[in-house]
Amino acid sequence: MEIGSLAEWVEGGAEILAVSVALFLPYFQERRQNRAKNQRAKQVIISTAEQLLHDTNIKSDKILSELQGFVQVYSMLATNDKTIDIIAQGSAIIDVVGDSDALSSKQQQDIKQIIADLNAMKL
Questions:
Q1: How many separate helices (H) and strands (E) can be counted in the chain?
Q2: Cα-based distances in Å from 101 to 18, 66, 69
Q3: Second label for 112, Cα 20 to 30 Å away, from 13, 19, 45, 80?
C-alpha cells in the first residue's frame, strides 16, 4: 500500500481546509452580524434612556415615543436571545417612566440601574 506523494497530501489538506471554511464561515458571519445588531440596539436604548434622565417634560418631547417605537419594531425583529434581553431592558425603562411627565428620584435610580445592567450585558 502506497501512502501517496507529498503533493497529494497537500491537496488533501487543502480540500479539508476548504470544506471547513465553507461549512463554518456562514455561522461566524451570522454571529458577527448579530453581535453588531445587538450593540446598536444597546446603544440606542442607553442613549435614549440617558436623554430621558435629563428630560423635564417627557410627555411633550418625542424621546419616550421614539423609544417605544424602537422597542416595538425591534421586538418583532428579534432573532436571538440577547436581542430579546436587550429589548426587555428597553421595555423596562418604558415601564419605569410610565405616565410621568418628570422623573422622580426613584424612577431615575431605576433607569440608571437598567442602564448599568445593559452596560454589563455581554454580547
A1: 4, 0
A2: 60, 16, 18
A3: 80
The pLDDT of residue 55 = 85
Maximum Cα–Cα distance for the chain, whole Å? 85
HSE-CB at 2 with a 13 A cutoff on CA atoms is: 5
How many other β-carbons are positioned within 10 Å of the β-carbon of residue 111?
A: 19
Residue 2's φ and ψ, nearest 5 degrees, are -100, 140
C-alpha cell at 99: 405616565
In this prediction, residue 1 carries a pLDDT of: 63
Question: What are 5's three cell numbers?
Answer: 506523494
Confidence (pTM): 0.79
The candidate with the shortest Cα–Cα distance to 108, out of 48, 59, 52, 41, is: 52
